[in-house]
Amino acid sequence: MTKKNPQGEVWIFAEQQDGKLNDVALELCGKARALADVLGVKVGAVLPGYQVAGLAPALFAHGVDRVYLVDDPNLRRFTSAPYAFVMEKLIDKYAPQIVLYGATPLGRDFGPRVASAIRAGLTADCVELEIGDVVDAKTKEEYKNLLYQIRPAFGGNIVATIVNPERWPQMATVREGVFPKQEPDASRSGELVEEKIALDPSLLCVEVLERMVEEKTVDLKGARIVVSGGAGVGSKENFQLIRDLADALGGAVGASRAAVNCGYIGAEHLVGQTGVTVRPALYVAVGISGAIQHIAGMQDSAKIIAINSDPNAPIFSIARYGIVGDLNQIVPWFIKAVKERPTE
Description:
Elements (H helix, E strand, L loop, with lengths): L9 E4 L2 E2 L2 E2 L1 H17 L3 E7 L6 H6 L4 E6 L8 H15 L3 E5 L2 H14 L3 E5 L1 E8 L6 E12 L4 E5 L7 E5 L16 E4 L30 E5 L10 H10 L2 E4 L1 H5 L20 E5 L5 H4 L7 E6 L12 E4 L2 H14 L4
Helix pairs in contact: 3-4, 5-8
């Protein structure tokens, strides 16, 4: 555990692979900026890698004040041990009060290793982060300006707020897409701090020989229109109605966890707490009851249309427009209306 430093910076781990920043790193910049402004401190980004100094301007443009660059040929490819060691050393030297990681496969591997090594806490898969005060119910001691680490718990049935009043830095992982990426400000500049950290050969026991990347076939996060189907669609064959409506609207196809579990569609289409968080201009939920796990991933959509045979389905509580009826009749009518609308 590093020393408790109320004036410490708010840090993000600037995840990058092959010299390209992960979107979640830029999303975290905006949230870190907001938290740091409340605390009156600077935002730092830890950027390990090899020949990645060129990524610093993008971090500055998205709200970072200081980039801690560790440039080493041994960090060309991500491996857990050396990356975690670098972060441990920097935390020990600079004592940030908050460190945020993306809840990507890399971040989920890396973040807990750092937390274990420095004996600090880490809250996984947060959906919101805020600054606030806490009073210990037993000792009545008041703690000021703590990080509220907010995440679903007990299968998504409740939302828990977790705080670390003593074990600092306060650390959390955040799912990709939870926070919107802020518009970059190209006029912003910052300080590039180059750090040299000697890596013991024992940390380099794993070597990445080749990295195989499968091209993403679904871009739910970037879609302006998303049409999602749930278990109520009824079958894999019937899910073609969802695809047809998405095609007619020029949108992407999403799904609830229930639809994925039923085998109607692949997990890459999953929207929700365990999938992708989306904020499209239009979200159409077909045959989706509206479990809290799904709502967590789409409730910030600009407009929501819900189609369900159950008039008491929870999804209607957040829908701008609700249609009660048989989706096998309604969706074809919907498609027909979209195709017949006049074009300018």
